[in-house]
Design a protein that fits this description.
With about 250 residues, this protein is of the alpha/beta class. Helix content is about 25%, strand content about 25%.
C-alpha cells in the first residue's frame, strides 16, 4: 500500500490493506480515510482490496478506480463512486492522468471466504502528474515484455516495482526489467514484507506466517534488488514501513 501526494495536495492511495498488514499501523480511521481523494486498485486479492471497506464507513464517496470486472463487483456491493477502466484506458483529472496498463498476475475477490469471485485481470497503472513526475505502478506483476512498451510510450521516471518473488516476480526478474525494459531513474521495490524488527504489528506478522508460510520467503527481497542494481544508473529507493519520502530525480 502506497499513498502518493500530488503538488496540489491530493492523495492517491494504491491498494488499501489495513487489518492484516504487519507493516501498517492503525490507518482504518476517519481521519486517514477522509484524507484520501482517489483509491486505485491493481487487482482483487485481499491484500490489495481489504481496506476499501473502511471507506464505506468514513469516506463512502471516495473515487475508486479498478479494472472493469472488479469495479462491477464493488458497485454491486454498494460503493457509489467507482470508475471502471480497462487496458490503455485513461482517466484525466485536474492534476494527473491515470492510465491502466497490463500486469501478469491472477485475481480473485474475497478469496479467503466462501464468497470468492473472479476478480477480472490484474493491472498496473501509469500516473502522469501535471508539471511533475510520471510513475509506473507495476502491481503484483510477473516479468512481462509489456514493460518495454510502457517505458517507451509513457516514459516514467519512477517505477513502483514488485520484487518479492513467490507471488510476484523476484529480484532477479526485477533486475532484468530495470536493466532491459524500464528506463527509469528510480525504482521502489514493492510487495515486500517486514521482518520481526520492522513489523509495526508483530502479532499480525506471526499470524500471517502461520497462515501463509510463504510470507517468510518474501522478506528481504528489496535489499537483494538494491544489491543487484548497485552498479546501475537506476537508483533503488527502499521505503521503511510507514515512511514518507520526497523522490527527486
Amino acid at each position: 500500500m502506497f499513498k502518493l501526494e500530488s503538488q496540489s495536495g491530493k492523495n492517491y492511495l494504491i491498494d488499501p490493506f489495513f487489518s492484516m498488514n504487519p507493516g501498517c499501523g492503525d490507518l482504518a480511521t476517519e481521519e486517514f480515510t477522509k484524507s484520501i481523494d482517489v483509491v486505485l486498485l491493481t487487482h482483487a486479492h485481499f491484500d490489495h482490496t481489504e481496506g476499501v471497506n473502511a471507506f464505506k464507513d468514513y469516506n463512502p464517496n471516495v473515487q475508486i478506480i479498478a479494472q472493469y470486472e472488479l469495479a462491477l463487483l464493488l458497485m454491486n456491493e454498494g460503493f457509489p463512486n467507482v470508475m471502471p477502466l480497462n487496458f490503455s484506458g485513461t482517466l484525466k483529472t485536474d492534476d494527473v492522468s491515470i492510465t491502466m496498463v497490463p500486469a501478469l498476475h491472477t485475481s480473485m475477490y474475497a478469496e479467503l471466504s466462501d464468497q470468492a469471485k473472479y476478480g477480472g485481470v490484474a493491472a498496473g497503472y501509469v500516473l502522469e502528474f501535471t508539471n511533475d513526475k510520471t510513475i509506473y505502478v507495476s502491481g503484483d506483476t510477473g516479468l512481462t515484455q509489456e514493460m518495454k512498451i510502457i517505458s517507451d510510450l509513457y516514459q516514467p521516471q519512477i517505477a513502483l516495482l514488485s520484487c518479492s518473488d513467490v507471488l510476484t516476480m523476484g529480484p532477479r526478474e526485477a533486475e532484468y526489467a530495470v536493466r532491459n525494459l524500464l528506463d527509469v531513474d528510480v525504482v521502489i521495490p514493492v510487495h515486500t514484507f517486514p521482518n520481526e524488527k520492522e513489523a509495526v504489528r508483530g502479532d499480525i506478522l506471526k499470524q500471517l506466517k502461520e497462515a501463509f508460510p510463504i510470507v517468510e520467503m518474501m522478506v528481504g527481497a528489496d535489499q537483494e534488488l538494491a544489491e543487484r542494481l548497485k552498479d546501475h544508473k537506476t537508483k533503488v529507493v527502499i521505503f521503511g514501513f510507514g515512511e514518507t519520502k520526497i523522490i527527486n530525480c
